[in-house]
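Posted in: Structural Biology > Protein-Ligand Complexes

Title: Requesting predicted complex, oxa(dethia)-CoA in pocket

I'd be grateful if someone could produce the 3D structure tokens for the following input. Sequence and ligand are given below.
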Amino acid sequence: MNARCNLLSLSSHVPSQVLTNDDLAKMVDTSDEWITTRTGIKERRRLAATENASDLGCKAALKALDEAGIKASALTHIIAATCTPDSLCPSVACIISGKLGAGAVMAFDVSAACSGFLYGLSLCRSILAQDPAAKILFVCTEALTRRSDWTDRSTCVLFGDGAGACVLTADERPSLAALEDVLCKSDGSLNNLIVVGGGTATQYKQGDTVGSDFFIHMQGREVYRHAVRQMSGICEEILQRNGMGIKDVDLFVPHQANLRIIEAVGSRLDVAPEKVFTNVDRYGNTSSASVPLALAEARAQGRLEPGMRVLMTAFGGGLTVGAALLRF
Ligand code: UT7
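-- Reply #1 --
Done. Output follows.
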């Protein structure tokens, strides 16, 4: 597909509350040493009791609209990627639309867990191919600490909250970055490896107390194995189908789930360590928000000059996996 799909802007937002490894060590039987050596995470953000995923997303969205110079009322689509929506219905996209006063836009959510940014980019590209006049606000936002089981040390140390947003069009006007290609896949036979509860599978009655199924469950070791294999595989595939090699990539921005996974994927792909962007130490795993949050931070640090090519990849519940090439 050769449709033009340009990012006019890119932004992020994280809540102000910082939860350090030492804070967690007061809640569960863990230590800064274990979390740092096994994951590379030092701290993560936690949203306030008064905030929801839509609030984080809205803050990122306002910055993205401002940078793009587009009013909410001019948008044609609002898409939100999340696995921790405020509610099953309405969608986070509709809540954000209402908060922004966007009017009669098409608004809906994408459920692809940590691969949400890549899945959303693929969708935006298809929408722009069908409707080149579309103006899309795409938001990735997560409130994962709301589904963290604070008694389960094997999962609660991993996740954090945050949001990223961008505006996409097929305009010819100068853009921040062009989407060169995106590739997304899944393996539904492994859907039990990462589960975020709170859906209708559990038949709660009013007055029941939530059970452990309400929270994030993950078979960590299995996920780790698949994550390394799937992310490196899909990166090789997208490079190959574009006639590129890793030498054509200026910055590698992988899903920030675990530093060891990032290093293993980087090593399989033979990416020079200085070309691998990481911020997992400060935010942990923010699922769909992870890649746009990393990308926005790389840009803020001056690591994305015009002309540079970025390879992004992510992996998550579903199991889903994706990769994309962006040219700044
Ligand atoms: O977003 C995409 C989805 N998520 C991921 O990509 C996560 C993928 N998986 C991982 O990152 C890793 O598997 C984890 C970080 C979750 C776990 O690391 P691991 O090296 O695979 O540890 P493990 O699960 O094999 O556990 C090793 C030991 C166990 O103790 P025993 O049975 O050996 O006595 C665990 O009980 O570490 C223990 N453990 C902990 N100890 C201290 C597990 N969590 C903790 C903890 N603090 N927080």
